[in-house]
Amino acid sequence: MATVLIVAPVFALIAAGYASVLFRFVSEGAHKGISEFAFSIAIPALLFRTIVVSEFPDVSPWRMWGAYYGALALIWIAALMISAVMRERREDREDGVVFAIGSVYGNIVMLGIPR
């Protein structure tokens, strides 16, 4: 139940945005301005505020970093290996890097800082 209470506002906000375009409260081209505001002003301000007010325990971050970047490295290697198998018939090798980056990219802003 706690998970529902945490996730419900996110889906409510998505539904409100969808409904506002569906019922023409905002134009279909408004997403450009909203995206620029969110990624240039709102999200950096949110991250700055979160870091300023966060209280970190006296625990070494090495284990958390090791777990995150270790898993990232394993997924990166697996993605490169899968792309190598898939590209045996093709000539473009750049696809493997794009595939690996897409596999390990995480949206840290939405995940937040673990407590």
Shape: extended
- Judged by helices, strands and strand pairing, the structural class is mainly alpha
Total discrete domains: 2
**Strand elements, count:** 0
In the predicted model, the low-confidence regions spanning at least 5 consecutive residues are none
How far do the termini sit from each other?
A: 19 Å
- Gyration radius (Cα, Å) is 20 Å
Number of helices: 5
Description:
By secondary structure, the protein is mainly alpha-helical. The chain contains five helices and no strands. The protein has two domains: 54 residues, no CATH class; 58 residues. The protein is extended.
Give a topology summary.
Elements: H1 2-22, H2 31-53, H3 62-86, H4 94-104, H5 108-111
Helix pairs in contact: 3-4
Quickly describe the structure:
With 115 residues, the protein is mostly helical. It has helices at residues 2-22, 31-53, 62-86, 94-104, 108-111.
List keywords for this structure.
mainly alpha; 115 residues; 5 helices; 2 domains; single chain
